[in-house]
Design goal:
By secondary structure, the protein is of the alpha+beta class. Helix content is 35%, strand content 22%. The chain has one domain: Peptide deformylase (Peptide Deformylase), CATH 3.90.45.10. It has helices at residues 24-39, 125-138, 149-171, 178-192; strands spanning 44-46, 56-59, 71-82, 85-89, 99-103, 106-112, 118-124. A hairpin with a 5-residue loop joins strand 6 (106-112) and strand 7 (118-124). The two termini are 20 Å apart. The structure holds zinc ion. Zinc ion binds at residues 91-93, 133, 137.
């Protein structure tokens, strides 16, 4: 059973490891990730947002089940990135926080699908923004790392609120210690990387 984790959970800052094998459990976890993404009204979800330290994300630019493409990117790499565009972003790991982020306008992304087939896509617009946001997650980068100092001041109270909630949950034993999280991640890596 996967659960969405929120800022400042340490797995969000952990660079995810390349996937070396896909099995039935991983396929069912991908289904669960889509389910969580739709439920939370998101358009993309990276594996480390559900505490899995592996290089995989799912996306559906429509944000709705049965509409638009359901995309799975395993071991994604951006081969070429061009142009620039700025737009507001949010993140399921920082619910309620939005800020403008500058991204490349178009990207060429290389990855593997859940069926093992190679993906080589030239994309732009909203999907290109999603891919860059999710790929950042896999590198331990959050959109709040890419916003202006001025915008950061506007969300600093929200961030402190998330930090306080995290500390409380940890003290209540609802989130593991750093060592426990490290052990959990090592187990997933031993299985899939
Ligand atoms: Zn995000």
């Amino acid at each position: 059973m996967l659960h969405l984790i929120t800022y400042p959970h340490p797995t969000l800052r952990y660079p995810a490891k390349p996937i070396a094998r896909v099995d039935a459990q991983l396929r069912s976890m991908v289904d669960e990730m889509f389910h969580i993404m739709y439920e939370q009204r998101g358009v993309g979800l990276a594996a480390n947002q559900v505490n899995l330290p592996i290089r995989l994300f799912v996306a559906n630019p429509s944000g709705e089940k049965d509409t638009g493409p359901e995309l799975v990117f395993i071991n994604p790499v951006i081969k070429r990135a061009t142009g620039s565009s700025e737009a507001e972003e949010g993140c399921l790991s920082l619910p309620g926080v939005n800020a403008n982020v500058k991204r490349n306008k178009s990207v060429r992304v290389n990855a593997y699908g859940i069926d093992g087939r190679e993906i080589d896509l030239e994309i732009d617009g909203f999907l290109a923004r999603i891919v860059q946001h999710e790929l950042d997650h896999l590198d331990g980068v959050l959109f709040i790392d890419r916003i202006s100092e001025e915008n950061r001041k506007q969300i600093i109270d929200d961030l402190m609120g998330f930090e306080a909630t995290f500390d409380m949950k940890r003290k209540a034993g609802l989130i593991g210690s750093d060592q426990q999280l490290l052990d959990e991640r090592a187990e997933w890596e031993a299985k899939y990387c």
